[in-house]
């Protein structure tokens, strides 16, 4: 018993010497710049906040009953399978997300997909988007990458660059599909 008390007394002596405190600070209040006149919507005017509206008269009821129908509605639509999940990846990001080719599919992607498959069934993976609209397949790229973006024509925020990709990306999608049973759709 004495062997047990000695460490407990030492711990008690140590903790009584420890002190702690908490500092609190006031959050700074935004002040408008002198001479500045706000010209936006009133709801966002920092100098003239919108008043809190009064409660309605009579006040709404706080107690009410909700009845749930557990019988289902067979005419509402077709049954939805448990694996009803779709994931979309922009074609220009397929190499970064899925992998550059069938021999090196990214393990992070495989881990995510295998988790989804084990919890709900095989999801549908849609690969496409705006970059798919202007994409074309080539045998190989000089850089050795599986895909590249090329700006062709006028440049603007809405102009999607042309995507050039190799069959390596398609093979990586096929490998992931074969390994995990996910459904890949090119759009």
Largest sheet: 3 strands, parallel
Assign a percent range to the helix content.
25-40%
Seen as an oligomer or otherwise, the chain set is single chain
Mean pLDDT score, rounded? 80
Specify Rg, calculated over alpha carbons.
Answer: 31 Å
What percentage of the residues does DSSP assign to strands (E)? Answer: 5-15%
Q: What structural category arises from helix and sheet content?
A: alpha/beta
Overall morphology: extended
> Low-confidence runs (pLDDT<50, min 5 residues)?
none
Distance between the termini: 75 Å
**Total number of helices:** 5
What is the number of beta strands? 6
* Order of secondary-structure elements: HEHHEHEEEHE
Describe the structure.
The protein has 187 residues and is an alpha/beta fold. The chain has a domain at 86-152 and 159-186. Helices cover 28% and strands 13% of the residues. It has helices spanning 2-17, 94-97, 107-120, 130-133, 167-180; strands at residues 86-90, 124-128, 135-137, 147-150, 162-165, 183-186. The radius of gyration is 31 Å and the shape is extended. The model has no long low-confidence stretch (mean pLDDT 80). The termini are far apart. The strands form two sheets. Strands 1-2-6 form a three-stranded parallel beta sheet. It has five helices and six strands, in the order αβααβαβββαβ.
């Amino acid at each position: 018993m004495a062997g047990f008390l000695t460490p407990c007394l030492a711990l008690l002596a140590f903790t009584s010497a420890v002190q702690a405190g908490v500092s609190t600070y006031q959050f700074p209040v935004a002040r408008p710049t002198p001479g500045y006149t706000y010209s936006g919507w009133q709801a966002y005017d920092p100098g003239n906040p919108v008043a809190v509206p009064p409660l309605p008269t009579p006040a709404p009821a706080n107690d009410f009953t909700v009845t749930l129908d557990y019988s289902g509605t067979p005419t509402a639509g077709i049954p939805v399978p448990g694996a009803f999940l779709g994931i979309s990846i922009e074609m220009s990001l397929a190499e970064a997300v899925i992998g550059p080719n069938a021999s090196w599919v990214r393990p992070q992607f495989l881990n995510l997909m295998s988790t989804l498959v084990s919890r709900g069934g095989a999801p549908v993976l849609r690969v496409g988007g705006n970059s798919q609209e202007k994409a074309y397949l080539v045998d190989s790229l000089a850089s050795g990458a599986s895909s590249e973006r090329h700006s062709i024509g006028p440049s603007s925020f809405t102009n999607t660059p042309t995507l050039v990709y190799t069959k390596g990306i398609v093979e990586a999608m096929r490998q992931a599909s074969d390994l995990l049973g996910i459904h890949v759709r090119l759009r």
